[in-house]
């Protein structure tokens, strides 16, 4: 049996044999196992011979049956050939008969067609005679149930009457026309009744009859009118219109032979009557009184109309449905879109001015006139070259005159204006209109708000020699930086998509670049003057707190302080300003300003130390002060600043080093590259400089 594995078979045989399953044990009997294997091999050989004889018998039987089957297949093939031959003969006979039948049919049709025409003409002549006699006796005209047949006859008679001369047949032509009109009215009435009853099949029959009448278009008008009865009951006329068109689209193909024309006419009627009236009512109410509501309504109505148009694009309305729907939309909104941008700019201007004025009023602030041209331009150029405050300093009481709420409001108004511009502007005018809106944003956000705040902030920076001056310009810098990030985001998110493929792109980028450069000039100027004020404050601290006796104490052996009071106060002030600079700026600007502040801080301390004479203990105290200044300089995290204070600390060592070691210290790593005059100037500050021994060692 399959699957057969010889090893497993031998193993099972060994286990079944007594004494053959325990290898090497006491019960193991190899002779008995050998005897069992020999007997089993003999049984298998006998079984193999028996099976082999059975196989040979089956093979002989199979060969015999194969020969019989092949003989039978040959007989069937011969029978099939005979049947196929008979089929071909039958097919030829059928074709021959069919040809005869077609020929006979053509002959019959050639005889029957003229006969039918003659019968039709005879009937028409009979009906024409009734009109000629002035009395309609035929059942087709008197029986109301045969209106379909009567319509077919009167339509043909009407066509014939058109060809007859008027002078001889005026009366009969008039009667036929009257009957034509009466039947037409009856059919339209029948169509109307069927529509009210909802009988689609009857409507289809009547419409098919009316198709050849002049009043077919009136039938379509009736259908369109009745479709709209009760369809516009909700407040949402656009949703009602979409539902109506979907319902009619499913139905119109079952009634009319030209459904796309009927559906297009329905849509045209909805746009020209319902939508146009609705749009006019919504817009005219606010057109002159409320520009904000007018623009919102215009954007909303135009959007909803175009969305409805997109839904209607799914229906079959003929060949160029895109152009058809676009013309309908244009007809509704053309009078409003022609001057849209003027209304938009006017509203944006008044709204932006109101937002700014409301903010300044809340601060009880009367805006100063910055002015342009003449003396103002001259002052501006002088200020940029000299960095000096021109005119009196203004106390802003810590107010930056910048408001993120105002900025968000201005940007929100402009964002909505960009969205309306994108939707309502003609594609050819879109870049130009978007640029005008951007110009409004630049005028009110950048010029009237940010630039004004920078000018006010500059005017509020005190002079560098002022005492206890409050410095708020860095707050202006921080807020202006945040605001400009918001301005730049709106430029990229909302303006760029509208102008990216037009010549206005370069114009907008240039305008933005100019605005940035103007602001950067004023920010740089304000930061520079603020740093000058910081240094001025530090000068006042040093002048007030530093005493000459600090570095030349009367009792050299009784100095108890680690560093001077002036140093403590200056370091405290510097740390506060460093933190303020970090909080007010971002990116590389932080390092740039801190480096400039650090360099000026170093210069101040360097020049300050040059003003005193130092005893040995005073020099040690100066070294302690500089070490504290250097610790403060580490807060800057600027390598150059730290290097400057390291060098200054090394220079201060010259104040205390023994005269014999001066040359060795001056040639050290930190002082070797310094100018000899600088080294000499520090050595001269020692009180023992004039001693012959010190002068001799240094020379």
Automatic annotation (TrEMBL):
Pfam families: Sec10_HB, Sec10_N
Domain Exocyst complex component Sec10-like alpha-helical bundle: 149-698
Coiled coil: 41-79
UniProt KW keywords: Coiled coil, Exocytosis, Transport
Gene responsible for this protein: Exoc5
Domain Exocyst complex component Sec10 N-terminal: start-end pairs: 30-138
PANTHER family, per the entry: EXOCYST COMPLEX COMPONENT 5 (PTHR12100:SF0), SEC10 (PTHR12100)
Entry keyword Coiled coil: yes
Lineage per the UniProt record: Eukaryota, Metazoa, Chordata, Craniata, Vertebrata
Name recorded for this polypeptide: Exocyst complex component 5
């Amino acid at each position: 049996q399959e699957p057969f594995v010889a090893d497993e078979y031998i193993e099972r045989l060994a286990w079944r044999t007594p004494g053959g399953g325990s290898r090497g044990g006491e019960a193991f009997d190899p002779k008995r196992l050998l005897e069992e294997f020999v007997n089993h091999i003999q049984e298998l050989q006998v079984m193999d011979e028996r099976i082999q004889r059975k196989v040979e018998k089956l093979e002989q039987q199979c060969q015999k049956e194969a020969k019989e089957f092949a003989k039978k297949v040959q007989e069937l093939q011969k029978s099939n050939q005979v049947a196929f031959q008979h089929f071909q003969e039958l097919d030829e006979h059928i074709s021959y008969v069919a040809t005869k039948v077609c020929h006979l049919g053509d002959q019959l049709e050639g005889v029957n067609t003229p006969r039918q025409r003659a019968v039709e003409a005879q009937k028409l002549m009979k009906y024409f005679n009734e009109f000629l006699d002035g009395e309609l006796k035929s059942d087709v005209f008197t029986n109301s149930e045969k209106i379909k047949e009567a319509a077919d006859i009167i339509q043909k008679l009407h066509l014939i009457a058109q060809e007859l001369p008027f002078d001889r047949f005026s009366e009969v032509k008039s009667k036929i026309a009257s009957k034509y009109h009466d039947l037409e009215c009856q059919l339209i009435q029948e169509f109307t009744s069927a529509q009210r009853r909802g009988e689609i099949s009857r409507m289809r029959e009547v419409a098919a009859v009316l198709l050849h009448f002049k009043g077919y278009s009136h039938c379509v008008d009736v259908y369109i009118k009745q479709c709209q009865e009760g369809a516009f009951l909700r407040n949402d006329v656009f949703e009602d219109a979409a539902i109506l068109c979907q319902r009619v689209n499913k139905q119109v193909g079952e009634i009319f032979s030209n459904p796309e024309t009927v559906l297009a006419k329905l849509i045209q009627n909805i746009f020209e009557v319902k939508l146009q009236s609705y749009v006019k009512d919504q817009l005219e109410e606010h057109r002159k009184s409320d520009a904000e509501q007018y623009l919102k309504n215009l954007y909303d109505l135009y959007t909803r109309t175009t969305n409805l148009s997109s839904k209607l694009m799914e229906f079959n309305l003929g060949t160029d449905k895109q152009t058809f729907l676009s013309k309908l939309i244009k007809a509704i909104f053309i009078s409003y879109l022609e001057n849209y941008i003027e209304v938009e700019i006017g509203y944006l201007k008044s709204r932006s001015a109101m937002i700014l004025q409301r903010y300044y009023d809340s601060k009880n602030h009367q805006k100063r006139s910055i002015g342009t041209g003449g003396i103002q331009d001259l002052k501006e150029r002088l200020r940029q070259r000299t960095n000096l405050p021109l005119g009196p300093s203004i106390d802003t009481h810590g107010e930056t005159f910048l408001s993120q709420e105002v900025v968000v409001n201005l940007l929100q108004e402009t964002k909505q204006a960009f969205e309306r511009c994108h939707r309502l502007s003609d594609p050819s005018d879109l870049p130009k209109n978007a640029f005008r809106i951007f110009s409004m944003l630049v005028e009110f956000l950048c010029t009237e708000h940010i630039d004004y705040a920078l000018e006010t902030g500059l005017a509020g920076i005190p002079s560098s020699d002022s005492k206890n001056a409050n410095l708020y310009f860095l707050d202006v810098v921080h807020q202006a930086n945040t605001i400009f990030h918001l301005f730049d985001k709106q430029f990229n998110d909302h303006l760029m998509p509208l102008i990216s493929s037009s010549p206005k792109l370069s114009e907008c980028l240039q305008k933005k670049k100019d605005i940035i450069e103007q602001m950067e000039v004023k920010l740089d100027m304000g930061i520079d003057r603020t740093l000058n004020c910081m240094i001025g404050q530090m000068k006042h601290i040093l002048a007030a707190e530093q005493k000459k006796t600090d570095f030349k104490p009367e009792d050299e052996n009784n100095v108890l302080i680690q560093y001077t009071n002036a140093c403590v106060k200056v370091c405290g002030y510097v740390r506060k300003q460093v933190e303020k600079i970090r909080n007010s700026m971002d990116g590389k600007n932080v390092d740039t300003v801190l480096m400039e502040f650090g360099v000026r801080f170093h210069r101040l301390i360097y020049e300050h130390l040059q003003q005193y004479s130092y005893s040995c203990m005073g020099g040690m105290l100066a070294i302690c002060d500089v070490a504290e200044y250097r610790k403060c300089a580490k807060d800057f995290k600027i390598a150059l600043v730290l290097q400057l204070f390291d060098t200054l600390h090394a220079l201060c060592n010259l104040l205390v080093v023994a005269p014999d070691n001066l040359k060795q210290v001056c040639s050290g790593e930190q002082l070797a590259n310094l100018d000899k005059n600088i080294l000499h100037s520090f050595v001269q500050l020692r009180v023992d400089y004039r001693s012959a021994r010190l002068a001799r060692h240094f020379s």
